[in-house]
Design goal:
Strand content: under 5%
Helix content: over 70%
Radius of gyration: 44 Å
Largest sheet: none
Number of strands: 0
Distance between the termini: 102 Å
Number of helices: 2
Low-confidence stretches: none
Mean pLDDT: 80
Length: about 130
């Protein structure tokens, strides 16, 4: 952005200088035209150089951005794998806890069934 402003400033300065030079030229017309032509050629060369520099900077920044994006992608993949593995471990632990709790509940139910009397007399049965 700054190089674009610099480029435009240089271009505006060249145009203003050429205009002032023509207005206040003490030389003959052919000399003035030659100076204007030379100034225009110099301005053109400066413009090409600035555009080349700008293109190089754009290429550099693009390469930097691509590298940054690649690094972020790799980091996210790595962290995602870590999170996935951590979540998997937590789920396995929870399932093991649930299995243990279920076994304990089954054992408690079996013990309670074993301790219970075989038959309970029915209060409505007159023979009991």
């Amino acid at each position: 952005m700054a190089s674009t402003k610099s480029f435009l400033s240089i271009l505006a300065g060249l145009a203003a200088g050429a205009a002032i030079g023509i207005l206040y030229a003490p030389d003959k017309g052919w000399k003035t035209r030659a100076r204007v032509k030379k100034a225009a050629a110099n301005g053109y060369e400066d413009m090409k150089e600035n555009l080349g520099d700008l293109g190089t900077k754009v290429d550099e920044k693009t390469a930097e951005a691509k590298e940054t994006i690649k690094n972020l992608r790799d980091t996210l993949r790595e962290k995602g794998s870590e999170i996935k593995e951590g979540t998997r471990k937590l789920l396995v632990e929870q399932l093991e806890r649930l299995e243990n709790a279920l076994k304990q509940a089954e054992e408690a139910a079996e013990e309670a069934a074993a301790e219970a009397p075989e038959s309970v007399p029915d209060e409505q049965d007159p023979q009991a």
